[in-house]
Amino acid sequence: MALPPLDQAPRVIGIDDFAFKKGLRYGTVITNLETGRAIDLLPDRKAATVTLWLAQHPEIEVISRDRSTEYERASREGAPQAGGGLGPLARAEKLP
Predict the structure, then answer these.
(1) Does the predicted model carry a pTM greater than 0.90?
(2) Which CATH fold would you assign to the domain 12-91?
C-alpha cells in the first residue's frame, strides 16, 4: 500500500503488525518515530518482506520492534547498521 511520499528519509523507525482482517490476514506498519507518521504498510509480516524494505533504506539507524522473531531477523539482516533493532528490553542508552 502506498502512502504519501516522505518529506525526509527516516532515521528512527518502529515496526509492528496490524490486522487487515483480525485472525486472518496481517500486515506490517512502519512508522517514523521522530515524526510519529506511518511511512509504509507492507502486505504481510514475513521477515523476507521487511528485510527487503529495510535493505532499500540504508539511512535507518534505530529500529524499535516487538519480540517477533520475524521482525528480529529482518532487522538483523536488512539493517545491520541499526544493530538488529531494539527489542522491548533494550536499554535507552542505545538511542541516539
Answers:
(1) no
(2) Nucleotidyltransferase; domain 5 (3.30.420)
